[in-house]
From TrEMBL:
Catalytic activity: riboflavin + ATP = FMN + ADP + H(+); FMN + ATP + H(+) = FAD + diphosphate
Keywords from the named record: ATP-binding, FAD, Flavoprotein, FMN, Kinase, Multifunctional enzyme, Nucleotide-binding, Nucleotidyltransferase, Transferase
All residue ranges annotated as the Riboflavin kinase domain in the record: 183-308
Protein name, as recorded: Riboflavin biosynthesis protein
Coiled coil: none
Organism per entry: Myroides marinus
Pathway assigned in UniProt: Cofactor biosynthesis; FAD biosynthesis; FAD from FMN: step 1/1; Cofactor biosynthesis; FMN biosynthesis; FMN from riboflavin (ATP route): step 1/1
Length: 319
């Protein structure tokens, strides 16, 4: 897969089958669209292309920096590459770009720059300045400029009834990993670097790798305790993760910490990828360390039980 950092950098001598959107999460609804795109490009001897925008239009137009996204740009690249996409164009979405009228966008970008033979798009897609144009306008432009428009119907989209917003809400408000992972079609994951903590974990018999996530816009599920898995030095390792402020300790900062089961070694400064499989419980405030350690032992038991019954319904992202 080739990645382009702007529309104007794109070049290809083949005609292109394109789609556009944010594709946050690259969930199974998105995967269906990308599959159509890749198949259609193969069938016509052309190349597939996804045009995506970064930062998220909501961050720019509504100046809403509180929005957390399911994927970092790096993750999106990885997921789209795995689906066999030929070209990913990441256009900086800024005020200037948002001012393109629908026809300017179609002519300058889709026709002159991408030379599309076809665009595949959802029935409810709106585009251009102030989102004024819809699929019927796009079809009219298609006739004018000579490209096909393949509409993804309401039935096809509603059939899966999945949206990035639903997944974000499930993770942020409930911590519902089962629903999120089912909708994503892969196990939700994040990456980050292991930093030094308070060195308390080891004294409790549960050392925890404290992870600082790569991008601050990456959505981390609601505070609580989770079953996770990582590859450590090439070995698949089970773990339990605590996300939150650890209320047992006064003024504890927000941390993301993983205790890996049956594993011992130094993880400082390593970059880890953590896949989140299930939620165990909310964070609790304990009366003392004994009570905390008793609960950690219980969490460990729950984690082991989870794995002994776990049947993978979805593929891990990197396999
Ligand atoms: C699986 C797991 C669950 C945890 N649950 C809680 C909790 O409910 N309440 C709490 O105050 N701390 C909780 N902790 C955090 C520990 O109390 C402790 O702060 C941490 O393991 C030590 O941090 P350190 O790496 O900075 O030494 C949990 C830790 C783990 C690994
Ligand atoms: N099973 C394990 N799970 C997590 N980290 C471990 C494990 N065994 C050893 N470690 C190491 O111990 C560190 C965590 O120990 P801890 O006492 O909690 O220190 P810190 O407060 O710096 O995180 C990890 O960063 C890692 O280098």
């Amino acid at each position: 897969m080739k990645t382009f950092s702007s529309i104007s950098n794109f070049e290809s001598d083949k005609r292109v089958v394109a789609t556009l959107g944010t594709f946050d999460g690259v969930h199974i609804g998105h995967q269906m669209i990308i599959k159509k795109l890749v198949d259609s490009a193969k069938a016509t001897g052309g190349e597939s292309l996804v045009l995506t925008f970064f930062p998220h239009p909501r961050m720019v137009l509504k100046q809403d920096n509180s929005i957390r996204l399911l994927n970092t740009i790096e993750e999106k690249k990885e997921l789209l590459k795995g689906l066999g996409l030929d070209n990913l164009v990441i256009q900086k979405f800024d005020y200037e770009f948002s001012q393109h009228t629908a026809e300017e966008f179609v002519k300058k970008v889709l026709v002159d720059q991408f030379n599309i033979s076809k665009i595949i798009i959802g029935y409810d897609h709106r585009f251009g300045k102030n989102r004024t144009a819809d699929i019927n306008d796009l079809k009219a432009f298609g006739e004018k400029y000579g490209f096909e428009v393949e509409e993804i119907s309401a039935q096809e989209i509603d059939h899966v009834s999945i949206s990035s917003t639903k997944i974000r809400t499930a993770l942020e408000e409930v911590g519902d990993m089962t629903l999120a992972n089912e909708f994503l079609g892969y196990e939700y994951y994040f990456s980050g670097v292991v930093v030094h903590g308070k060195k308390l974990g080891r004294t409790l018999g549960f050392p925890t790798a404290n992870i600082v996530v790569d991008e601050d816009y990456k959505l981390i599920p609601k505070n609580g305790v989770y079953v996770v898995e990582s590859e450590l030095n090439g070995e698949l390792v089970k773990g339990m993760m605590s996300v939150g402020i650890n209320p047992t300790f006064a003024d504890h900062p927000y941390t993301i910490e993983v205790n890996y089961l049956d594993w011992n070694g130094d993880l400082y400064d390593q970059k880890l990828k953590v896949r989140i499989l299930d939620r165990i419980r909310d964070e609790l405030k304990f009366s003392g360390l004994d009570e905390l350690v008793a609960k950690l032992k219980d969490d460990e038991r729950v984690t082991r039980e989870f794995f002994s019954a776990y049947e993978r319904k979805v593929v891990p992202s990197d396999r």
